[in-house]
């Protein structure tokens, strides 16, 4: 999963991609928690970052569900 995903970057993704990114982030969070519990985690800040990425993905998915924001495709002017 890419580091530093923004809500704007997530809004241009389709639903299937968001679900895949959410799955990857949850797997990473599980692995980080496991490392933390066994004392092998070196970067505790990554736990916080992954939790925030998951929250961003859920937020974008919920916005679409409520009709607040629709899927916006990037257009290339070139």
UniProtKB/TrEMBL annotation:
Pfam families: Ribosomal_L29. Keywords: Ribonucleoprotein, Ribosomal protein. It comes from the Bacteria. GO terms for cellular component: cytosolic large ribosomal subunit. Gene3D superfamilies: 1.10.287.310. One of its GO terms (molecular function) is structural constituent of ribosome. NCBIfam families: L29. Belongs to the universal ribosomal protein uL29 family. HAMAP family: Ribosomal_uL29 (MF_00374). This is Large ribosomal subunit protein uL29. It comes from Nonomuraea zeae.
